[in-house]
Amino acid sequence: MAVVLLHTFWGVIFFDACEKRRYWCLGLVVISHLVTSGLTFLNPWYVASLVPIYIITFCMGIWAFFTAGGSFHNILKCLSCKQEDDSRVMMYSALQVPFED
User: How many whole angstroms separate alpha carbon 26 and alpha carbon 49?
Assistant: First the structure.
């Protein structure tokens, strides 16, 4: 599960780094990938490999969240469970009848 999430997070960070030419981010993604792959060799000591991989997953998830445009304000807003008083209704339909003049 952690490796699947890591690949998603790495993809977000990697392609953002490619677009913005942040080569140090590319390097960190590759290094964290190699570290995680290397930790799987410690599989006989299951906890010794699992705990660091989950720590890397958590850190990469936070980094990918902020890279994708998330903010601390959005997290607090989500955790507060308050609904905004928004009476606007948005309708979207791909099939719309053209206006006749």
Answer: 24
